[in-house]
Amino acid sequence: MNRPFIGIPMGDAAGIGPEIVLKTIANPEISGIARCVVVGDKGVMELAETYPGSPKPGINVIREPAEGRYEPGILNLIDLHNIDLNKLKVGTVDGMCGKASYEYIAESIRLANARLVDAVATTPINKESLRKGGVPYIGHTEIFGALTGTEDPLTMFEVRGMRVFFLTRHVSLREACDLVTKDRIVDYVHRCTEALRRLGVTEGTMAIAGLNPHSGEHGLFGTEEVEQVYPAVEQLRKEGYNVEGPIGADSVFHLALQGRYNSVLSLYHDQGHIATKTLDFERTIAITNGMPILRTSVDHGTAMDIAGKGIASAVSMMEAVRLAVKYAPAFKNN
After folding, report:
1. Residue 319, CB half-sphere, CA atoms under 13 Å: how many?
2. Max Cα-Cα span within the chain
3. Which CATH class is domain 1-153+291-334?
4. Distance, CA of 82 to CA of 254 (rounded, Å)
5. What's this model's pTM, rounded to 2 decimal places?
6. 3-state SS assignment for residue 39
7. Which CATH number fits domain 154-280: 3.90.226.10, 3.40.50.1820, 3.40.718.10, 3.50.50.60?
8. Can you tell me the distance from the alpha carbon of 135 to that of 129, in angstroms, rounded to the nearest whole number?
9. Closest by CA position to 159, among listed 328, 333, 325, 320
10. 9 preceded by cis ω (within 30°)?
11. What is the pLDDT of residues 149-191, one digit of tens each?
C-alpha cells in the first residue's frame, strides 16, 4: 500500500484522452506501482470501452481516493457527470468538452492541494475547446498556476534522462527573441536549479542553449548572446551556479543526452520541443515545476483525427504516470 495515489483527469471527451486512460489503467505494470484515481465522466469512459480493441476494466465510482479498490482490472473514477452523450461528437472541437476537461483538471488539483493524491498526471486537452467552453486559461500550465497560487510555473521535459527547461513558452517567435534578456535568464536559472533540487537532482551543470546559429559567432549574426546570454552566465557563475553557455543549439541537446549536462535551458518553445520529441516522441514527458504539487503530463495533443478508432498509443500516458511515481516522494512533506 506504499504505492502513491496519482490523479488522472480524463482529458477532452472528444479526443484520445479517455482511450489512453483506459489502456493505462489496464496495464498491470501501472497498477503495480500506482493507485490511479481518474477524474472524468462515467458515460464517456463507457463509450471509450466500445472503441475497437479497447480494454474494459470494471468502473468503480468513488467520491474520494480513499474509497477506491486499487487492484488490477479496476478503474476508480470520480464521476463529474458533465458530458451530454447525446451531444458528444468524438473527434470534434466542442466547448462542452473544453469546459468539462477544465473541471476534471480543477478537481484533480483540489485533490492534490488537499494531499488526497500525491501527484497529477494529465491527459491532453484542446486549447480551442477550452476557449469555446469559456475557460479563461490557454492550457494546463496556466490552469495549474492559477489553482495552486503559482505565479509562473516552470515547464521541464524529461526524456531518457535528458531534462529541458524553457525560457519562453506560448508566445510568437518574435516575442520569444525579445524575452531573451540577462535578467530573465538569471531568474530562470535560479528557479530551475531550485526545481531540480526539489526533484533530487543536486549534481551537474546546467547548459544554456544559444539562440542564433552557432550562438551568433560573437555577434557576427545576432547580438543576443553577446548582450544578454554571456553576461547572464558571468553573473550566475559569480553567484556560485554551475552553468555553461551559450552552447550551440545544434549540439547542446546531444551533449546533455550523453550526460555532460544535467539539464538544458531552451530559449524558446520549439527549440527544446524539437530536440526532445525527435529523440523519443512518446516518452517525452512534461513536468510542471515550482508548484506546491507535482504534475506530469503527456506532451501530445488530443489527436482528434484518430479519436474513437481504438488506435491511440498510451505509451506517453504510462510514462507520465511512471515519472509521477518517481518524483512523488519529493513532494510528500511539502
Report:
1. 21
2. 64
3. alpha beta
4. 45
5. 0.89
6. strand
7. 3.40.718.10
8. 9
9. 320
10. no
11. 998 888 899 999 999 999 998 889 999 999 999 999 999 999 9
